[in-house]
Amino acid sequence: MQFVSIKNDDGWIQVDYKATWRYGYDFMLDAVQVIIDTDFQSDVQRLAVAEIAGGNNTEILTEAKLVGMDLRNCAAASKECGALTVAGISNIMECPVQIVFFNQTDRVRLFCPVAEYFEKNGERVFDNYMDSVEIKAYCRDTERRTVNRLSKK
Fold this sequence. Notes:
Blueprint: E1 2-9, E2 12-23, H1 25-40, E3 44-50, E4 57-59, H2 61-66, H3 75-78, E5 83-90, E6 95-102, E7 105-112, H4 115-121, H5 127-152
Antiparallel strand pairs: 1-2, 2-7, 3-4, 3-5, 5-6, 6-7
Helix pairs in contact: 1-5
């Protein structure tokens, strides 16, 4: 992902990224699942969908927990939406973060409430993290599509 911009938004640092390609809802589910599985694990604090980007969020964390945080098996997450948000404590970055994916775009927005983290490590401290999320999500998406094609033969 390419770093686009950074700003302080009422105490939260907001970092905008641009994905390599425009993505759809399948990628969003894969990306959030990657974040949950490889980083947040049991430290997921928020999971929400919005019908349209900028619309009201519907919290779906309770429903996701009922299916073991498997988003593809969560009815509340399975309906395509305009934005998908995940927040929690990053074990990798060792700080709280919230990441929002916007359907049918190439934009991803990261929020972090710890300004000192950026002061100490620089404004692009999350670049490698976001690159890894994108790569793992595309790999997961490709694997799922390949398995689906092979199972139809």
